Amino acid sequence: MPLALVAVTAVWGVTFVQVKDAVAIYPLFAFLALRFAIASATLAPAAARTVPRLGRTGLRDGVVLGLLLAAGYALQTAGLERTTVSSAGFVTGLYVVLTPVLALVLFRVRAGAAVWGGVALATLGLALLSGVEAGSSSGDLLVLGGAGAFALQIVLMERSAPRHDPVGLTFVEMLAAFAGFLVVALALGDLGVPRGWTVWGALVVTGVFASALAFLIQSWAQQRTSATRTALIFSLEPVFAGIFGYALAGDRLGPLGLAGCVVIMAGIGLAEPAAARTLARLVGRGRQCAE
Question: Per the confidence metrics, is the pTM higher than 0.90?
Fold first, then answer.
């Protein structure tokens, strides 16, 4: 289970480079609408049999989860237009803190001392990794709203996942996110047929792997682990983004960024030992391949 969630964050990390190139030449909300349309189409054949068994409760849960995803991406994007990239990256990562807080406030789910210690270390690591340059208060508030939406999606998934078939639930979630982004893209007049492999390649990879399969794995994994532990493992996303940015785009993290990666992994190791063992195995295999 930890290996599956770590794999999800690795996929999200590698797509940073693709998405950055794609949205430079194609409107963002149109890109997101098509991304989740592809995700919905990917899951549709398998979901055809399971969606009718969700019932009203399952359909409602899937719609709420999908709209929270759409709201998170929309608020994050709106905030990024008003604040610095590093500030937006750090504030988005605060869903690691917001997740256990929301779980406690909404459902009285308490986290142990090791988990809170891991959350604190992950937050410190995110600050080091992003650099946290001062941004605008209005932009940071919008990004914080997006982080809250992502945190709430993780918390509600913990409640919904054990009660519903993961394929059907994820399909409805992807369809709801697609509908939300489609409305925004149409309102902006941005929707059009993409051209070129840069955009289509990013759409296929993010639609199939970073959305359909990634959120399906989240639905399956959260039948077996808590929202807070899921959020902690998801904090590896910027770590993988930095690794693949270095390998594929020539980005350089610098000493503080590297320290941030180490601190995030230390926080995960403290709160989620199984995930730490998975990371250690991956690092060991990487060294063997390098040799």
Answer: no
